[in-house]
Amino acid sequence: MQLATRAVVTAVLATAVAVAGYVGGLPLSITAAVLAVALAVGWPALAGLPFAPGSAVVVALGGVGAVAVVHLTDSEPYLRHLPVVFAGAILLAFVNELLRRDGRTRLVESVSGTVAGTLVAAAVAGWVAIGRTPDGEPIAVVGALSLAVGSVVVVLHLTPWIGALVTAAAAAGAGALGGFLLPGIDPLAGAILGLAVGVLVATLHALFDQLPSLERRLPSLAVVTLPVTVTGILVYVVGRVLVG
Asked: What is the DSSP letter of 185?
């Protein structure tokens, strides 16, 4: 999958999160769960894990489980049960290795890669948490819009440092615009949130863009989904600090 195509897909996914965040409730949780499953499908191929089916199941269960417990938590803090889900996913990662019948080659790499994928998938629950927070819907929308803009701008043919600065600035501008248009978040807070999202987008672009495996479909699926899942926990933390 070409870089421009990956950027467009990521922007579309971020826009879907923005729409779901505006609606709030169950649609946002369903969107987050779908993103977790999509990441799980592609993560083993992206990380080069030796037992792809088992690792994908563990990552999917961790991500969907995180979304479910946050959605079902009826009072703040909405992320309080998330460590329990992640701990259970770590146990499942070891069970996954016990089920292998291939000699268990690259055992440490398999466990660590599966756990890392689960952590990335579980981060998508941040979107659900900020959406359930009182007056949190505008934060989710601004964060998702900043991600969409940053994902498109990052493909511009610029030198690495200039490209990172332009991406961060564009995301910050989108956040400020969102803060201006939406009630419940002021433009300065939106700009700071957008800046944080833009820095994350630029960092992930530098980290994954040169991987040869992105010529294949499944690794590309993970890479286009990963910024959206990781941004969930970032938006929750930064949004709560800025807005309360």
From this structure: S
pLDDT along the chain (244 residues), means of 10: 82 91 87 96 93 94 96 88 93 92 86 95 94 84 93 85 92 93 87 93 86 84 94 89 72
Helices (H), 82-186: 82-98, 107-122, 125-132, 137-153, 160-181
The pTM of the full predicted model, rounded to 2 decimals, is 0.91
Contact between residue 118 and residue 62 where contact means Cβ atoms under 8 Å apart? yes
Residue 4, token pair as written in the block: 């421009």
DSSP notation for 52-110: HHHHHHHHHHHHHHHHHHHHH--SS-TTTTHHHHHHHHHHHHHHHHHT--S--TTHHHH
Structure tokens given for 133: 């927070």
- Count of alpha carbons within 13 angstroms of residue 46, beta-carbon side: 28
